[in-house]
Amino acid sequence: MTKAQPIDRIFLQFNKNLDGLKNKYLRDALSAVLWMSDRSLWLASDESTTIEKLSYIDDKTFGNHEQFHLQDFLDSFQATDEKGKMIEIDLEGIDYSENYLWAIGSHSTKRKKPKNDDLDIIFEGKDLERLAQVKPDINRYILARIPMVKDEQGKYTLKKSEGELTAAYLERTQNEEGMVSNLLIDALKNDPHFGSFLSNSTNQNIALPGKDNGFDIEGLVVRGNRILIGLRGPVLRGWAAILEIEVEDSSPGLLKLKPIGENGGLYKKYFLNLKGLGIRELCKDGEYLLILAGPTMVLDGSVLLFRLKGGIERLSDRADKKVLEIISEIPIGEGCDRPEGMTIFPYSDSSNALLVVYDSPAENRFEKDDPHSVWADVFEI
To answer: What is the C-alpha separation between 259 and 352, in angstroms, rounded?
Structure first.
């Protein structure tokens, strides 16, 4: 297997005045990236409630940072709690289709991290208590669309509405215990594969964190009415999963699941042999589907780039057993440089370059005179 080496690097310049994350910078938690034809890059962080736009400056640099707050587009969306603390979305995927930008959160619960995570053993004290605390964040249960149109200068921007285009998100729900989720999670609670990760026999929510091989979304591809959702977890006996759904308007600003397939179910599911890895990102490459696969848990392990031969249509084509091709292994760092987002990127004479952004980037991706910015990698595929 070939271990890929970057053919170039692109500098992503973020504006320090728009960098409002607590205890870290936007550059430290990039989770999704999307190239648009006006030579802009759209990015998401898994610790914010915003979408970032960077514009082309030169062949090595994207900057002129613009920021879009989701609460400005989505009705009843709250970016902060009653104490003014940000409720992160944990955005894990963005895509563009038919004049809409789509964005999806992880739909996962989270376990608190020990503060002294440099220790080898924890057996008492506050860190032991923290490790037992699991909670959901309402904003993580988000699947949203926002009109994405060109302005008078021919540059893409976001609008709450534009003609018949309207911003909306999948309806959220709340059970008797006050646990929040949405229509997608509710539909999956009785699923024979995923139900046990989401609820028990009395239909009570199970708080199994995504980083513990619980339910965790980390990939989004939209083509027309088809929405493909990649799951980092759970990985079942070594098999990763992609969900397919369709949505339709239910009321102004809200979406509901649309029956899909011959049996009228609300979703389809596909299991993929990704060598025991979970899905970390999905990306369209023309008619093909690229899949970035990595560990479900927080560890340093192989990150592989797969191509689905024949594209999305082959997901339901069982005639050919060999439809997944490993393109390469993406390098990672020790405790850093975890590939999280990818997008097809026009580079020089190559029409098949891939731009990759990283969570927990290594120190060599930073510039001392610009602490808010970061270098991303370009790979040939």
So the answer is: 35
C-alpha distances in Å from residue 176, one per residue of 23, 128, 137, 179, 279 = 35, 29, 17, 7, 32
SS3 197: helix
Give the predicted TM-score (pTM) of the model.
0.93
- Which residue matches tokens 């914010």? 48
CA–CA separation, 24 and 124 (whole Å): 28
Pairing of strands 100-105, 40-45: unpaired
Decide if 311 contacts 289 (C-beta within 8 A): yes
Gap between the Cα atoms of 163 and 358, Å rounded = 36
Confidence band of 149 (pLDDT split at 50, 70, 90): very high
State the fold for domain 8-380. Tachylectin-2; Chain A (2.115.10)
If one counts every other C-beta atom within 10 angstroms of the C-beta of residue 98, the result is 12
pLDDT 10s digits, 154-182: 999 999 999 999 999 999 987 777 777 89
Cis before 234 (ω within 30): yes
Domain limits, the chain: 8-380
How far apart (Å, rounded) are the C-alpha atoms in residues 305 and 324? 10
User: What does the alpha-carbon distance between residue 33 and residue 95 come to, in Å, rounded to a whole number?
Assistant: 9
What is the rounded CA–CA span in Å between residue 243 and residue 226? 10
Residues in Cβ contact with 5 at an 8 Å cutoff, skipping those fewer than 6 apart: 331, 379
Q: Which residue bears the tokens 């970035």? A: 292
